[in-house]
Amino acid sequence: MSARGNDSCKAAPVSMTIRMQQLAQPKLSQLRYPDRLSLWEVSERALTAVASKRLCHLANPKAPVSAWQPDRPLPVPVSRGTQTAVASVRICQLAQPKKRSILEGSSYKSKPGPLTRSTSKAVAHIELLATPKRDHPNFESDRSVFWPVSRGARNYRASQRVIELSQPKERKALFEGYNPYAVSRGALSASPSHRIQELSLPLLRKCISK
């Protein structure tokens, strides 16, 4: 790689603005009152302090509500009556699984009914609805992907104004002195038309009469 290529790879120096330097400064509260360490010395007054009755009352845990019930244990004890229960004939009948002729995994399909003369031929109204709609006479289909280029377009020469407009605008970065809030001279000397002034007025129904 040439020396010129190495120079182009180097990053441009970045200069901080006054606002960025102000934001980079630490807060005064952090300098005056820094974060307390996880380990600190306990004062003698705190070691010999005696809690008041109010503090002792607030330190007691809250008692549960009178209607509160503890959670049931996971291994629920089964009563002796449940262990010695005998199912009736009706319960045994309801406990049997339903017998289905369709195999497992296959979706249920209804059986097609027998075709008759009335069902084999469509009604005239259904045939009318089944006919596709015609395109509008002014409808134009999508242009093909490939189309012939005219001779005038192939031999066309762009004017100096077109070449000037086709060039991209050169924009500078903020650290290079670009001001995004700069107003052009034409915008400063522009005067709004009568229609723009009329549209800028608030609606009469929203104006509060004093």
UniProtKB/TrEMBL annotation:
Keywords: Repeat
InterPro entries per UniProt: SPMAP2-like, THEG
Pfam families according to UniProt: THEG
GO terms for biological process, alphabetical: spermatogenesis
UniProt name for this protein: Testicular haploid expressed gene protein-like
Keyword Protease: no
Organism name: Oryzias javanicus
Ranges annotated as spanning the membrane: none
Keyword Zinc carried by entry: no
Top-level taxon of origin: Eukaryota
